[in-house]
Amino acid sequence: MTSEQHTSPDGADTDADTGAAISVRDLRQSYGDFEAVRGISFDIARGELFALLGTNGAGKTTTIETLEGFRRPSSGTVRVFDTDPYGQPAALRERVDAVLQHSGVFGELTVAETVDLSRDLAADPLDRDTVLSAVGLWDRADFAVRQLSGGQKRRLDLGLALLSQPEVLFLDEPTAGMDPEARRATWQVIEDLVAGGVAVLLTTHYLEEAERLADRIAIMHAGEVRVSGWIHEVLTRWGDRIGFRMPDGLRIDELPDLPDAAVETDIRENEPWVSYVITGDDTAGRGQRAMAALLAWARDNDVTLQRLELRTASLEDVFLSVAAQDGVAELAPTW
Ligand SMILES: Nc1ncnc2c1ncn2[C@@H]1O[C@H](COP(=O)(O)OP(=O)(O)OP(=O)(O)O)[C@@H](O)[C@H]1O
Question: One GO biological process from the UniProt record (predicted)?
């Protein structure tokens, strides 16, 4: 993880002065009259994992395909190591690899043959056993690729991407179809790559995956980045949560005011549910203070709080508010 990027005196970010492996500036991308990406900007440093999240059709794949050099921007600039990636120039080919949504491997070849074929194309490849061990397929070397399960194919895709020892890796939903154990093993592989200095751009619909792996995130909706930042800052900004089952016989206006908190009610698992969202500046102590006030109220009023919980905001809380809203301004928490 590195510090935030700087801008050179002429206003241009450069690889040399920022350490940015990937730089996107005001990228717009259209399909005919339809603008799928509407002016987004971000940087990714070496040794950083940046998660590009978003609703279906938000523009993530379009953005990644542009960075991979498959599409020329309609306007704006994208750079990978200070180089325009359009057309996948030779200077980048050895430094960049990807796990795409749709695997390009041949079903009739064995796993070992598939790895060897990719090794033949790489300048300084890892050896076959290292690759197959890294992705947990050492016992599948002699299987035809078509005999692999969906999750195993995904692991093979990752193995093929990491064997060339890339400096930039694009991961487009890399753990789709994996069971929980394979997913965790894959997370470890990705964490090791990032620790080794690889810049990773990840898209995923598994928010737990982004929460575990990402240094910084951007959440896209309708072609725009609606929320971005260091993941812990985003979650802190979204506030802590106290929740409990709505006590029988109480109305919402009979619930107490808690410090720096706003209350709302909804239904959770078929039960009436109370949520307090706590956003005071004292991020270390605000949850405890609100909880202490709630417990004092419950004791004084002889109320039992069932299923009581205190938690920090999750990426799912942030994501759902992005998906539910349709304007940037409304997204800043107003409680
Ligand atoms: N080749 C294309 N021609 C026309 N429209 C396209 C094309 N590819 C994508 N789009 C549209 O552009 C928008 C963004 O698509 P994109 O695939 O980038 O979204 P995404 O964020 O990756 O979505 P998902 O999470 O569903 O994979 C969508 O509305 C999609 O319908």
Answer: response to antibiotic
